[in-house]
Amino acid sequence: MLTMSGLGGGLFQQVLASASEPIYVDDVFSTFLWEGNSTNSRAIANGIDLSGKGGLTWIKLRSGTDNHILYDTERGGSNFLSSDLTAAENSNDGLTFNSNGFTIAVNSQAYTNANGSDYCSWTFRKCPKFFDIVTFSGNSTAGREISHSLGSTPGMVIVKRRDAASSKWAVWHTSYGDNNRLYLNETSAGSPNQTNHIRTASSTTFTVGADYDVNVSGGTYVAYIFGNNDDSFGEDSDEAVIKCGGYTGAGTGLSVNVGFEPQWLMIKKVDSTEDWCLFDNMRGVVSGENDARLSTNNNYNENINAGEYIRFTPIGFQVDSGGNPVGSIGSNYIYMAIRRPHKPPESGTDVFALDTSDNTRTNGMEFNAGFAVDWYFYASATGNGNRFLSHRLASGRELNINTAGSDSSATTSEMDSTDGCHNGSLADGGFIARMWKRAPGFCDVVNYTGNAIDRSVEHNLGVVPEMMIVKNRQKNTDWYVYHKEMTTTHAVYWNDNDAEFSTTVWYTNPVASVFYVSSAAALNDNGDSHIALLFATRDGVSKVGSYSGTGNDLNVDCGFTAGARFVMIKRIDASGHWHQFDTEQGINSGDEPFLLLNGTTRTTGQDYIDPLNAGFTITSAAPDDINASGGTYIFLAIA
User: Are 31 and 24 in contact, with CB atoms under 8 Å apart?
Assistant: First the structure.
C-alpha cells in the first residue's frame, strides 16, 4: 500500500494528482438551450455538478428583450445580478443547484421559463485552472490583494458590487494589460492607467484599488476569475480548455489561433466603442451564414440576421466580418474562448443515435438523440427519396448524399437543440435520422475553405482517420471517400456504385492532427466551402474495417458486446452499392429493410445481415454487392 512515509510529502501529492480522473471541458462548462413552458420547478440537466463543486449559471432570453440573469453558488440561488445593469443584487426564488445542472424555481419563471420563450444558459463550474468565484467585503485600501483558488494566473477577472446600485462591472483582461479598465455592462472603450480598479492578477491573488466599483468600505462584492491556457485538462492532462487573448483587426479572413476549436467565444473591441459580443456553437456559428449574437452589455434579443461575424476552426476562429463589431482593420480586440467538448465516448449511445421523426414540434419534425447532434442524415422510413445530410457548422443547409449537387440554401435543418435536432421542412412523421456527436477517436466534422493548393487541413479526431468522406459544398462534384483499406492513390464515391479508382485527390496519408488534399476542385477549390466527415475505430464504440466475402454466412467481429446498431458496407474491388442497415429499421435474424445510400430506394423483404454480439453477420443470401466469394468490402459499424 502506498503511504506518505514511503514517499516524500510533495512526491506523494504528485502521485495522488497523477492518479486522479482527467477533467474535460464537458465536466466544467455547458451551453444549454430550452423553450420555456412555465413548468413549476423545471429541471435543466446539463451534466455540470453545481451542488457539489459550485459555479455560475448565466441565463439570457433569446427570443425577446430581457436582462441577463446571473446566479452563482457563492451568493446563493435566490440572488441574481444582471451583466447589462448597474443595479444591486436582486432576490427571488431563483435556482436550485443540482449535481447535474439546476432547477428553475416557480417564482423565477418570468425571467427564465416563460411559456413559448427561447432561453440559453452558460454554466461555469468551479475548477482549478478553469474558473473560481470569490466574495469579499470592501475596505477602501488601495492595492489590496484578494485571494483566489484558481491555481494559475487568470486570463480575466470580473468584479461587481452586490449591495448598491450604480455600480459597474469592472473587468481586467490579461491581453489588455495591468491597470487598464473595462466595463462588462458598457460599450465604452477601455481606459488605461486606472489604478483605482482591478490592477493585476497572479496565480494566488488579484489586486484592486479603492474605487466604489471594486473595494469601497462596507460594500459587498463578487469576483468571477477565469483561467487561461493551462494544459491540465483532457485524457492525458495536456490540453487547455479556456484561452484569453487578443488580436488586431485585419478585415475579413483573419485567423486567430487559440490552440483548440472553441464552442463559446466572447469578443470586445478595446480602443473604441463596441458591444461585448457572445457567440456559441449551440445557438449557431455557421460557416458562410448569419451567426447568432448576444451582448453582455444590453438586454436585446438574439441577433440572428445581421451577418457572418466569425467561424470556428479546428485551432481557433476566423473573423469573417471586415468591420464592426469584431473585425475593424487596425482595431484591438480581446477575447475569451472555451474549448468544444472533447471527452472520449465510453459507448456507442454516447455519440450515435437513431430516431424516427415525430410531430411534437409546431413547425417540422423533432429527432431525439439524448445529446447535442453535430451532424446527421435522414431518409424516409417507409418509402423512397433522397438522403439529406446537415451539420452544425453549416446548420440550415443540406446536402444530398446520393447526388453530386451543391448544398441547399433552404434553412430547414436546425441544430439548436441540446438533445437532438429539428427539421422544419418535414410536414409529418415517418423519417429516420442517423445522428452523430463529434468525439475524440470516433468521429469529427471539418468545414474548410479551399485554396487550390496541395495542403493540410487541421482536424480534431485526435487519432489517424481511417475513413474520410469529403465534398465540395458549393459545386456539382462527387463525394470522395478515403478508407485505410485503399491507398492514398485510390478512392470511391459515396454517391455512386463504382469500384475503387485511381485518383490524385489525396495529397498523402492523413495523420492524427491533419489530413491532406490536393488542389483538385472536388476537395479544395479556391474559395469554396468543403465538408469532411472523419471516422476511426474506438474500442467498443465504432469499427472502421474491411472483410473478404465468402458467399457463405460470415461473422464480422467489431469488438462489440451487444451488436452493431449501424452498419454501412461498400464493395471496392468491383461495382457495388452503399448498403446501410440499422436497428431503427431492423437488424434481425430474418428479413430487414435497408437503404442504398447512393440511390433513392429502400428495400424490404431481404435477409442480408443478421445480429451478432461482437458485430454483425453477413448471410449467405446476401448478393455480390455484400458477399461475393473473394470480394473486398469496406465498412463502418457503430455499437
Answer: no
Of the candidates 45, 185, 29, the residue with the CA atom closest to the CA atom of residue 122: 29
Average pLDDT for 575-589:
96
SS3 627: helix
C-beta of residue 95 within 8 angstroms of C-beta of residue 104:
yes
Output the nine-digit C-alpha cell for 445: 466534422
Task: Give dist(CA 294, CA 302) in Å, integer.
Answer: 5
pLDDT digits (tens, 9 = 90+) for 35-44: 998 888 899 9
Q: Which three-class secondary structure state does DSSP give residue 625?
A: helix
pLDDT per position as a tens digit, 567-578: 999 999 999 999
Give the C-alpha separation, 40 to 33, whole Å. Answer: 18
Give the integer Cα–Cα distance in Å for 84 and 74.
Answer: 21
Per the CB < 8 A criterion, the answer to whether 521 and 472 are in contact is yes
The overall average pLDDT reported for the chain is 92
Cell (9 digits) for 295? 451582448
Contacts of residue 208, defined as CB under 8 A and 6 or more positions apart, other chains included, come to: 144, 146, 159, 197, 198, 199, 214, 215
**Residues 121 and 47 sit within 8 Å (Cβ to Cβ):** no
Q: Do residues 311 and 505 lie in contact, with contact meaning Cβ atoms separated by under 8 Å?
A: no
Phi, psi of 289 (to 5 degrees): -135, 180
- Which amino acid is residue 289, in one-letter code? E
Cβ neighbours of 23 (radius 10 Å): 20
Nearest to 614 by CA among 576, 558, 568: 558
Q: What are phi and psi of 625, to 5 degrees?
A: -55, -25
3 state DSSP class of 80: strand
Residue keyed to cell 466603442: 273
Q: Helix H segments across 83-186?
A: 109-112
Compute the distance between CA of residue 243 and CA of residue 153 in angstroms, rounded to an integer: 12
First vs last C-alpha separation in the chain = 39
* 624: phi then psi, degrees, rounded to nearest 5: -60, -25
Name the residue type at position 155: G
Q: Which three cell numbers stand for residue 166?
A: 450604480
Query: How deeply is 201 buried, as exposed, middle or buried, from its count of CB atoms within 10 A (0-12, 13-18, 19+)?
Result: buried
Distance (Å, rounded) from C-alpha 189 to C-alpha 325? 13
DSSP string, 286-314: -TTS---BEETT--PPPB-SS---EEEET
